[in-house]
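Chains adopt folds. We examine one example:
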Amino acid sequence: MALDISLLRELIAATILFFVTRYFIRSLLKKSKQKLPPGPRGWPVVGALPLLGSMPHVTLAKLAKKYGPVMYLKMGTCSMVVASTPDAARAFLKTLDLNFSNRPADAGATHLAYNSQDMVFADYGPRWKLLRKLSNLHMLGGKALEDWSQVRAVELGHMLRAMCESSRKGEPVVVPEMLTYAMANMIGQVILSRRVFVTKGSESNEFKDMVVELMTSAGIFSIGDFIPSIAWMDLQGIARKMKELHKRWDVLLTKMMVEHAATAHERKGKPDFLDLIMANRENSDEEKLSLTNVKALLLNLFTAGTDTSSSIIEWALAEIMKNPKILKKAHDEMDKVIGRNRRLEESDIPKLPYLQAICKETFRRHPSTPLNLPRVSTQACEINGYYIPKNTRLSVNIWAIGRDPDVWENPLDFTPERFLSGKNAKIDPRGTDFELIPFGAGRRICAGTRMGIVLVEFILGSLIHSFEWMLPHGGGELNMDETFGLALQKAVPLSAMVRPRLAPTAYVS
């Protein structure tokens, strides 16, 4: 009997060894057939993380020149694929769009966006669809944008008059602070029926600082996101800073909602965005939005709604100040179409092709989001003959696409004329032409795409039309360095002297 048991044990051990060996052999054979895209080898354990540096969009663009338009990087224990050409972006964001419709659960989504309870980081599903639907219907869609056009005009008037006062005093205008103040008030009027900041000062500057800090910290490649087992150590101190910033935002948003609820009787028959969201928190699929979802949505609208458009306008003004011929050409077009006795109106914009070309060239040269917000594959898939594993993060290098010499002639030059004729004349930045996708594309395209384009064209056009623009202190070299984040900021905020060029009556209303 003892002999039989011994033989049985040996037989079981041999059987297990056989199946384990066969499993590994099959796995190796399977892997050999599943060819990953090319990419840098990286370091042990941390992979390619140390290669990215402080300007990941620039590093990834350089690596793509060596490894190709679809590039694979091992980032810690995670996989990441980077698309760096229009064709590669189209393959991921159109052909494979559904498979890449979710976001990875990273530190920004967890610590800033109420654990992905917002619209930007939420999983693709019923709650995200409800948030998107309500936002489009009541604020971001075409009809909603038309309904609050007067709000934009009034708030812009406040900004222009403040700039005239700075000019009278001989003081420079700090462009990003001015823009954030005006845009926050525009959005506040729509969401809350009131200006967020009554006067420009320390409170509005703190808001600007909070917006920039959120967009910058959320764009950092956190070690804990790519090596989850050590996330608790918070080696870069990112999680701690995010949690502190989140508390500040939560206090502000909670205060806004409490004050808004207390004044509900004043809006009888005239509901604003927040009234409508609170009244329609359920949909036909029985999906219900919590108060946390509503706060997270407000966070999206106030941060992305101010910072991305603000940075685009700031970059555009910096470029035209570097190129006086562009400023003169824009002034000539506007003087011919509008004259100097009134301000630019939104209805004028379709008649101003050179202004629209300046906006498109800025979207190309300085995309507000250099790397699209990350997506993650739900299932394994294949692209260009390469195998993409399940749970692979996707980054589309929008910055690299805008500077690709195979797509754009003299891509490092700021040349609005490239959009006035030829093959580029009909290119649209709304996500259908993958040569120019500043707002992304596909199901997860930025929900505020329409609003962003309207704000950039109207505000930038008004600033160009209303003023002459000069560098303070007699000029000098304009710093055009970038600071990486979810939004691409100027490293040195633009400060400028302005001189009114319209009739005094044009600034009154």
In short: The chain has a mean pLDDT of 90. The first helix runs from residue 2 to 33. The two ends are 104 Å apart (CA to CA). The chain has one domain: 35-507.
